[in-house]
Every structure is written in C-alpha cells, then in structure tokens.
Amino acid sequence: MRLTPEELRARKRRNVWIAAALVAFIVLVFSTTVLRLQQNQASERALLEAATGTTAQ
Amino acid sequence: MTDVQTQPAISTAQPEDFFQLLKPRVMSLVVFTAATGLVVAPGSINPLVAAIAVLCIAVGAGAAGALNMALEGETDALMRRTRGRPVAAGRVKKNDAMAFGVILSLFSVMLLGMNANWLAAGLLAMTIVYYAGFYTLLLKRRTPQNIVIGGAAGAFPPVIGWAAATGQAPWQAWLLFAIIFLWTPPHSWALALYSAGDYAKAGIPMMPVAKGAKSTRLQILLYTLVFVPVAIAPAFVGLGGLIYLVVSVAGGLGFLGLALRLYRSRAGDEPDKAEAVGREAALYDVRAQAKPARDLFAFSILYLMALFSALLVEALSGLGA
C-alpha cells in the first residue's frame, strides 16, 4: 500500500497531536497525584495535631 | 474501479476535524457554567484542582458531542446547519469519531474522579450517557419533547462543578441546573422556528415540525413565564447578590418581552422561500417574519451568559449575598 503525500501529512499531524495529548494527560495525572499526596499529608498532620494537642514540626 | 481510485487508503482527517467533533461552541458554554458552579460553591478549592476539574468537564462534554456526531452523521448531512460537521461531510469516519468520543469520555471521567471526587465523575459519566445514549439514540427522533428532556444534559455542568468543589450536590446546585433546563426549550424552539424545514427533511420531530409554529410560539411563552422567575430566584435564596438581582430582573423582562413579541408574530408560519427555490441559504439568512424568533434566540444566549457572569463576578469579588 503506497500512501499519498496528503495521507502521510495528515497521519503525521494526527500522530503529533496524539503524542501531545498523551503527554498532557501524563502531566495532569502526575499533578493530581502530587496534589492528592499533599492534601493527604496535610489532613494527616491536622489529625495528629488534634490528637496530641501540639503543633507538629 | 473509480471508488478504489478516489477512496484514500488511510484517513486524511486533520486534528482540526477532531477538534470540531468536540462542538467547541457548546464546550465554551459548558466551561463557563461548570466554572460558575465550582466558584459559587461554598468553601475553597485548590486552583489547580479547579482548573483540572473544569478541563475534565469540558472534555467530557466534548466527548458527548463527538459521540452525538458519530451517531447522527447521516441526519446531520441532511441539514444546512450541520452538514459541514466532520462526520456528515465525510472528513472523519463514523467509527473514528465513536472511538474518539469513547476514549475521551473514559479519560475525562477517570481523571475527574481522581482529581476531584467520584460524585462529580459519576455525574459527568451520567451526563455523557444521557446525551449520547438517551437523547441522541432514543429521544431525538421519537418525541417533540426531545429538547425538553434532553436539555437536562446541558444543565448538568454547574452541578458537576459544584460537586467537584464540595463533594456534594445540594439544592442550590440544582437551582442552577433548573435555570439551564428551563432556558433550553425557548432557546432551542426559537432556533427551530426558523430552521423547521431542515428538521422536517431530516425526520426529526422538533416542536414546530410536529405541532406547528403557533403551538411552538405559545409553548415558548409558557416556558418563559416559568423560566424567568426561576432565573431570578438565586437572588432571594442567598446565591446571588444585588448585581445578580438587577441583571436577572432586567434581562428577564427583556426575555419576556421578546417571547411575547414572538407569540404575537407569525414566525415559522410560512415555508422558507429560500428552500422552495433550492437556494443555499445560510442559517441566519431568515425571512423578515422570523426576526422575532431570531432575536429571542440571540437574546437567550446573552441572558444565560449574563446570569452566570453575574454569579461569577459576585463570587470572585466577594459581592455576593
């Protein structure tokens, strides 16, 4: 099967956008994970403070 | 033989075609209303979490649009307003559009669940299924009430935004839902009044096609009489402040005036002359009689934007109730 230059160009552009979308998705999942970890740590610290009545270092 | 020569070996669809599948204009309204729901909800939310949540809601709504276009390609090809859409015009294959919609649906729902909470993700999933499955496959071709029931899909974004921010969907969020839900019939039927010929050609029983223009004009007026008080209600239940009150009352009176003018007009009564002679008339190239319908359609978009803008401005500036 021989592809025309137009088909090749279109496929290349689609591939570039798919790659960009995948990278964006990875960045979003990573950001979400980091945010979740921070939130969990903060709530854990708050619970500890409430339990001990002291300010955690 | 000719088919083999003219048919491309692989798709020549461009990224822009796939972007068009997301219905970017509808998406912008979704982003706006979802962001408003998220901002007016009580409490605070991390800005990055909020931004990712709005992005997920926008992509989810876009995915629903892509599924709708995949399922409606043949019908879209029959109507002037929609015949340029990627699937209808043959630029994107039906199965490609379907796969695109399904993948984006899964990714957006999953990411919203991980990022915000699973209530918001569940509501987003329900919205996609409601629009692509319930509205597109079941309702649209079966009943002239299609847009009334199907309009709920467009009304969910502020509830999803609220749920993303708080993990709850209280009655205040559903009041925002009710505003968009009741706004949809007068908005859509005003458009249908001056494009009824297209809907009839495509076999879609929109109200003017099924019940006639006169009945549609009456129903637009009746829905407006219910919609306007609901649109003003947030000012009296602690959601909106003075700015919202002024905007909703002034705009509501304008909306009511235009609906009354449309009711007294003959919009939608005559067959479209442009269609009769087979001329390629643009959507907004309507007859003089249809002007009240066109005016109400344009004003309805402006009014909804103004309502949600007022809520957004008040919430962000601290001027709210």
UniProtKB/TrEMBL annotation, chain B:
Q: What is a biological process (GO) this protein takes part in?
A: heme O biosynthetic process
- Which membrane topology describes this protein? Multi-pass membrane protein
Query: Where is it located?
Result: Cell membrane
EC class of the enzyme, as a word? transferase
Catalytic reactions on record: heme b + (2E,6E)-farnesyl diphosphate + H2O = Fe(II)-heme o + diphosphate
Q: What molecular function does GO assign, one term?
A: protoheme IX farnesyltransferase activity
Part of which pathway? Porphyrin-containing compound metabolism; heme O biosynthesis; heme O from protoheme: step 1/1
InterPro entries for this protein: Protohaem_IX_farnesylTrfase, UbiA_prenyltransferase, UbiA_prenylTrfase_CS, UbiA_sf
Q: Which GO terms describe its cellular component?
A: plasma membrane
Q: What else is known?
A: Carbon 2 of the heme B porphyrin ring is defined according to the Fischer nomenclature.
**Could you say which protein family the record assigns here?**
Belongs to the UbiA prenyltransferase family. Protoheme IX farnesyltransferase subfamily.
- What is the protein's name according to its record? Protoheme IX farnesyltransferase
Gene coding for it: ctaB
